[in-house]
Amino acid sequence: MQKIWNIKTGLLIGLLFIMFNFSFGENIKDLEKSCEKGNARVCFHLGSIYDNKDFKKALYFYEKSCDLDYPLACYDLGIIYFYGHNVKKNIKKATWFFKKACDLDYSFACNNLGVIYNQGIGIKRNHKKAKQLFEKACSLGDELACRNLMFMY
Question: Is 24 helix (H, G, I), strand (E, B) or coil?
Answer without folding.
Answer: coil
